[in-house]
């Protein structure tokens, strides 16, 4: 039924629901979108109108500098009787428009004349807001860690400049890439310059759209060559510098014919070992191979090591360091 004045039956049902809401949400149930003063007197004087709208705070955190997320429930005069559903409105939330629209539609789909919507809607919204709060808090923590990381590294870099080294700082800490220091006397010396071969980008099957791998290969016969080549890639190739991982391995004979070899997974645990095994099993010598990977958002599992080794092998063949057979 639709009437302009609340009937006795409507008043009774709403009074019962409002009492339940007040008992359940206490101070989180508000008379308006603007909360009353926190003083006890004002709290007791604030009354919730039976006619609505009703306001339920959905959390304790002000997200993105906005007010506390709040659910507004606008009541048709026939509520809780009749087929006309109350109107839910969510305030003070920066939510993906599609997700927000789907949530509001879900609330309306939950409407049943036999059920009071207040607590039912409030708890469903609180579930969604709690996810946003956790995500927001995590992002803030990551941002703070990055800020602290950069502040510390800037101080370290200032010290490094006094010691004549150049420091590469990864663009983010989330992929566990290490900080790398390169002696300026090496990377600025033309006699250590190398010619680096780059393979075409490889997009692994069943990977994310942005997933790519590229191998970089060059001849090396001393550690100065290795340092120069790595610095050249990290400091002078912006795309490589922003790669999710730049794993590498090298293998060469030193002046005394001693075999010098090592590897680094650059945060992609196990990948450096795979590259080192490839160099050893293929008999490649006097070579540095670097594989840059740009993560595309789709986990590849153990298959990623096969693709990393495959891209590296392509580079070694193209550079003439191993036989392509």
From TrEMBL:
<dbReference type="Pfam" id="PF01205">
    <property type="entry name" value="Impact_N"/>
</dbReference>
<dbReference type="InterPro" id="IPR001498">
    <property type="entry name" value="Impact_N"/>
</dbReference>
<dbReference type="GO" id="GO:0006446">
    <property type="term" value="P:regulation of translational initiation"/>
</dbReference>
<feature type="domain" description="Impact N-terminal">
    <location>
        <begin position="214"/>
        <end position="314"/>
    </location>
</feature>
<comment type="similarity">
    <text>Belongs to the IMPACT family.</text>
</comment>
<dbReference type="InterPro" id="IPR023582">
    <property type="entry name" value="Impact"/>
</dbReference>
<dbReference type="InterPro" id="IPR020568">
    <property type="entry name" value="Ribosomal_Su5_D2-typ_SF"/>
</dbReference>
<protein>
    <submittedName>
        <fullName>IMPACT family protein</fullName>
    </submittedName>
</protein>
<dbReference type="GO" id="GO:0140469">
    <property type="term" value="P:GCN2-mediated signaling"/>
</dbReference>
<dbReference type="GO" id="GO:0005737">
    <property type="term" value="C:cytoplasm"/>
</dbReference>
<dbReference type="InterPro" id="IPR036956">
    <property type="entry name" value="Impact_N_sf"/>
</dbReference>
């Amino acid at each position: 039924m639709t009437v302009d004045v609340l009937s006795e039956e409507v008043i009774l049902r709403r009074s019962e629901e409002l009492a339940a809401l007040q008992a359940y949400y206490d101070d989180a149930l508000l008379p308006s979108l603007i909360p009353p003063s926190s003083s006890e007197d004002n709290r007791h004087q604030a009354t919730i109108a039976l006619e609505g709208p009703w306001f339920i705070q959905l959390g304790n955190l002000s997200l993105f500098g906005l007010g506390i997320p709040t659910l507004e429930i606008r009541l048709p005069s026939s509520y809780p009787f009749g087929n006309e559903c109350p109107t839910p409105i969510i305030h003070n939330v920066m939510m993906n428009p599609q997700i927000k629209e789907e949530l509001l539609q879900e609330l309306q789909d939950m409407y049943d004349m036999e059920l009071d919507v207040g607590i039912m809607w409030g708890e469903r919204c609180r579930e969604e807001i709690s996810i946003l709060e956790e995500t927001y808090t995590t992002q803030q923590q990551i941002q703070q860690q990055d800020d602290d990381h950069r502040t510390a590294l800037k101080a370290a870099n200032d010290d490094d400049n006094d010691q004549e080294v150049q420091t590469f700082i990864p663009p983010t800490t989330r992929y566990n890439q290490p900080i790398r220091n390169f002696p300026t006397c090496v990377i600025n010396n033309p006699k250590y310059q190398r010619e680096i071969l780059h393979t075409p980008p490889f997009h692994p099957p069943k990977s994310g759209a942005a997933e790519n791998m590229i191998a970089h290969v060059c001849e090396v016969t001393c550690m100065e060559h290795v340092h120069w080549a790595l610095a050249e890639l990290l400091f002078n190739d912006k795309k490589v510098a922003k790669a999710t991982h730049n794993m590498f391995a090298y293998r060469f004979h030193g002046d005394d014919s001693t075999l010098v070899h090592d590897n680094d997974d650059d945060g992609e645990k196990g990948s450096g070992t795979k590259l080192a095994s490839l160099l050893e099993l293929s008999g490649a010598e006097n070579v540095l191979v670097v594989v840059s990977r740009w993560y595309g958002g789709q986990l590849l599992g153990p298959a990623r090591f096969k693709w990393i080794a495959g891209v590296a092998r392509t580079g070694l063949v193209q550079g003439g360091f191993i036989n392509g057979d």
